[in-house]
Task: structure prediction
Amino acid sequence: MSFRKICLIVAFLPLALAAQKKDVQPNWHHLDLQKDGVFGIGTEKAYELLKNKKSSSVTVAVIDGGIDTGHEDLKSVMWVNSKEVPGNKVDDDKNGYVDDVYGWDYIGSAKGSVKYDNLELTRLIRFYQDRYSAVLNTTPLNPAEKKEFTLYKKLVTEQMGRMEVARLNLENYSSLRKAMDTIERKIGKTDITRADIEKYEPKGSAESKAIKYIKSELKDEPDYTSVKEKVKEIYDFCYSQINYHLNLEFDPRDSIGDNYTNSYERIYGNNDVKGPSPLHGTHVAGIIGANRVNNIGVKGIADNVKIMAIRTVPDGDERDKDVANSIRYAVDNGAKVINMSFGKSYSWDKAVVDSAIKYAQSKDVLLVHGAGNDAKNLDFNNSFPNRYFTNSSNANFENLPSNRLMDMMAQGRSQTIGMGGIVKPAAPPKPKPDSVKFSGPQANNWIEVGASTWKNDENLVADFSNYGKYSVDVFAPGVKINSTLPDSKYKEEEGTSMASPVVAGIAALIRSYYPNLTAVQVKDVIMRSVVKVNQKVKIKEEGETLRVKLSDICVSGGVVNAYNAIQLASQLSQSL
Result:
């Protein structure tokens, strides 16, 4: 399963975005550009500087979709709440959360844990539809109502467009899967090879399309099984779009049992930090801190870390109330770094998230966030959560000012994994840059991370990664990153979801060996220690391929480097 967002392009055609070649060493992100010729972060080289140096344990909270705490490479590095007696159904530490041994699940209850949820887009439509579904353009409205009505119409148009695309793609990929099943039966083997596909003579248009698609994908995939998995992922995504993400009749929140209108309610959820879909969070956790000395699996970046599991992200869009509570829980329970590999295009209640970010800032906690996988410029397109504080202090969605919602509106984007081969809706007009947010108040304990490849050439920036001269701070490895999967398995994945924990791992490493450095100082170290990129790199903008300087799409103009960061952190620590 890939963690790139689905890129909506024409059905059954080869991947439109430049595919990354497979000629790279396993676990390349730990390697060093100077020493190994691969644009990794120099992890092992950094540890040469740390020989015989003492470290202190650092807790890193992973706010995600769940973590398999029993994974062979993670169970020894999981944060454990020593004040709780496991399984006694008593809130031993009196923090309001019963049996929160490994962390907490804010999208669960005694009834179970939520797997699917809507996009924020769908939730906003549902909120406004009773008020505006029957309103006409000629209906008299006051200024505030006009803004809300305009927003409502835009949301409905986007939702309908996405639903139409999802239905067409589901039909296309259902046909593709059936054709592939037929081809497999005719070949008569369970382990189909590239050679089998090359010599297969298709019968009919459906088989011809399928063979053409498979051949194009096999250029970049290692085997037929991987191609088949990819097709299933796209099919499943489209199914989820229709039945959950965009379905106005589907709302799982009642199962949680909280008062959703109360943004500052803290006590709800359950202690099931694994949940029904722990793949993404487990992979993220392994990048940060998989056991480095057990001689199995993979090595995380930080060697003295405890991973706190906080389940917040469903298959769909996370909810602002849950994100805010997750940040506060992490801070209150000792996390010094928080990784957030999630995001969305709309924000229901940004003020409550801003409040939690400010709380983390006041407690010296560093927040690391993935920039997103839509190949967009975040200087022009909104993505939530982010470092920019809203001007409104109102955090109750019942009274959410319509002008704030309008300001928060972003261009629609696909929300989950992606690889290509499906229908693309009409491109929206290019938005205007929001200069106000760059000059306004913002969090100084926040690092926004784009994804890079191992290539020290024009293909350095991952083709899916978001970017922004003012919005994205650094780039970090985010393609073919090998890490942990549930049930003690391992796999390479890609996305800014993988780049963010690379930076969180470096931050944890610094805070572990140089605990006198503050969160802001750690951010400064990471930013100033990047490997600068001189050559121009390729990006996508409005469907065009451009070649730009990395400093034009990133604040630091470079790729993070653990070795450089440790050197700089040592110098700064000694000067304090």
